[in-house]
Design a protein that fits this description.
Elements lengths: L11 E3 L7 E5 L4 H13 E8 L5 H12 L3 E5 L2 E7 L11 E2 L4 H12 L4 E5 L2 H4 L4 H8 L4 E5 L3 E7 L8 E3 L5 H11 L4 E7 L6 H8 L4 E5 L5 E7 L3 E2 L3 E2 L4 H13 L4 E8 L6 H8 L3 E10 L2 E9 L7 E2 L11 H9 L2 E6 L12 H11 L3 E5 L2 E7 L9 E2 L5 H13 L4 E3 L12 H7 L12
Parallel strand pairs: 2-16, 3-14, 3-15, 6-7, 10-11, 19-20, 23-24
Antiparallel strand pairs: 1-24, 3-5, 4-5, 7-9, 8-9, 11-13, 12-13, 16-18, 17-18, 20-22, 21-22
Helix pairs in contact: 1-2, 1-3, 1-7, 3-5, 3-6, 5-6, 8-10, 8-12, 10-11, 10-12
Bound molecules: shikimate-3-phosphate.
Shikimate-3-phosphate binds next to helix 6.
Enzyme class: transferase
Function: Catalyzes the transfer of the enolpyruvyl moiety of phosphoenolpyruvate (PEP) to the 5-hydroxyl of shikimate-3-phosphate (S3P) to produce enolpyruvyl shikimate-3-phosphate and inorganic phosphate.
InterPro entries: Enolpyruvate_Tfrase_dom, Enolpyruvate_Tfrase_sf, EPSP_synthase, EPSP_synthase_CS, RNA3'P_cycl/enolpyr_Trfase_a/b
Length: 454
């Protein structure tokens, strides 16, 4: 596969789809689970086979980093095979670890590196270098590691890890699975009990996968809906094969496109249905979306199912703030759905969107406004005046700001809007959904080729 480079731009003009979407597809493997599978397999003793790994740029960066830390990682047909080194046994990398566009890769790896006794340097692309790392460096420094960052705790950063890490006891100030995971990963090589408290439950793939690799993780629920996670270190991970489910955050784009285009009738097979990831499905059902789950089952320890989606008239919605962690990456495409709904929608508690691959709050407002939708931000809430099915004028030029989810949201908007939407760059879609355009075309979207303007 051609690797993503910041200098190759792929613009795209998106025209209204002449008919609905039809057919059956699989979406690529879950990004969160794929990062974890590679990291945990590298920390395990023995050989792990990973099926369904997302071969997106973000995950390939994590594979490169774990190789640089001493794991042996190879591809065998469509499987990925990892020979792990064991907790505490990674080796000092002999070059800078470049995590590309991936906040998850950078933050989770910071936890691992903090409790290994060597020095490393981490960087990323311009988007990742602008994202806050303080949320992980502040708690992790308490275990004895030392972080030297640029101004405002931005990458690149140097990490002086410790071989004698103290276990952390930390209450997350923001609901973040990345921060929770970084602390748990640091705790694997600390002596004693690590305790992390989260105010609102966030995706629990780290907890699930640690158990899968044989690490006892205890979880208590608090009276106000939060969770406390306990882990005893030093821990031992035993290699176990992993099956990665389809990514619900990637499925979000064909799902919304199918809802917005009348006469659509599609099936997406094998989507991950972890309840801490399904906020978008709940919300779209609240809006009147025709979504039916079929063939629900457990695969590789995670719930999965096939989702049948039909074109639907949508009504506005009021999404509560405590639903945000279960759909944090889906707000840009939900905002597109709200633009085509009847009435004014309110999406509450979106502060975290400001620190994603781009400032997604500002970028989503700009995306909708460029296509003639009235949208405003009140505090951390976004309000969208829906225009009704097929009624968004379109015609806008969209700046995607190195953000894959903005690019895919802009494409979904363009497929249903009146006038063509001009998307400045679709290259970053490769970070999470490499064949997005091909799969949408398989469903009948009729998206043109992506001219390479580099
Ligand atoms: C992720 C957690 C979320 C999400 C990101 C993946 C993870 O970030 O936005 O795409 O895999 O843990 P936060 O934990 O910072 O909200």
């Amino acid at each position: 596969m051609q690797r993503l480079s910041e200098s190759s731009i792929r613009p795209l003009i998106v025209r209204r789809s002449p008919s609905g979407l039809r057919g059956t597809i699989n979406v690529p493997g879950d990004k969160s689970i794929s990062h974890r599978a590679l990291m945990f397999a590298a920390l395990a003793q023995g050989r792990t086979v990973i099926k369904g790994l997302l071969e997106g740029e973000d995950v390939l960066r994590t594979a490169d980093a774990m190789r640089a830390l001493g794991a042996t990682i190879s591809r065998d047909g469509s499987d990925w095979v990892v020979e792990g080194r064991g907790v505490g046994q990674l080796r000092e990398p002999d070059d800078v670890l470049d995590m590309g566009n991936s906040g998850t890769g950078a933050r989770l790896l910071s936890g691992i590196l903090s409790s290994h006794p060597f020095n490393s340097v981490m960087t990323g692309d311009a988007s990742l270098r602008s994202r806050p790392m303080r949320r992980v460096t502040a708690p992790l420094a308490e275990n004895g590691a030392c972080f030297v960052t640029r101004r405002d705790e931005r990458l690149p950063m140097a990490i002086v890890g410790t071989g004698a890490a103290k276990p952390l006891n930390y209450r997350l100030p923001v609901a973040s699975a990345q921060v929770k995971s970084a602390i748990l990963l640091a705790g694997l090589n600390a002596d004693g009990e690590t305790r992390v408290e989260e105010p609102v439950a966030t995706r629990d793939h780290t907890e699930n996968m640690l158990r899968h690799f044989g690490v006892p993780v205890r979880v208590e629920t608090t009276t106000d809906g939060g969770r406390v996670i306990f882990l005893q270190g030093p821990a031992h991970l035993t290699a176990r094969d992993v099956i990665v489910p389809g990514d619900p955050s990637s499925a979000a784009f064909p799902i919304v496109a199918a809802l917005l285009l009348p006469q659509s009738d599609i099936v997406i097979r094998g989507i991950g249905l972890n309840p801490l990831r399904t906020g978008l499905l709940t919300t779209l059902r609240d809006m009147g979306g025709d979504l039916r789950l079929e063939n629900e089952r457990i695969e590789g320890g995670e719930p999965v199912g096939d989702l049948h989606v039909r074109g639907s008239d949508l009504r506005c919605v009021d999404v509560p703030a405590d639903r945000a962690p279960s759909m944090i990456d889906e707000y840009p495409v939900l905002a597109v759905a709200c633009s085509f709904a009847n009435g004014t929608s309110r999406l509450r508690g979106l502060a975290e969107l400001r620190v994603k691959e781009s400032d997604r709050l500002a970028a989503t407002v700009a995306l909708l406004e460029a296509s003639g939708v009235v949208v405003r931000v009140e505090g951390d809430d976004m309000l969208i005046d829906g225009l009704g099915a097929g009624q968004v004028p379109g015609g806008g030029k969209v700046a995607t700001r190195m953000d894959h989810r903005l690019a895919m949201s802009a494409i979904v908007l363009g497929l249903a809007a009146g006038q063509p939407v001009d998307v400045d760059d679709t290259a970053f879609i490769d970070t999470s959904f490499p064949d997005f355009i091909g799969l949408m075309n398989k469903l009948g979207a009729n998206l043109g080729g992506t001219a390479d303007a580099s």
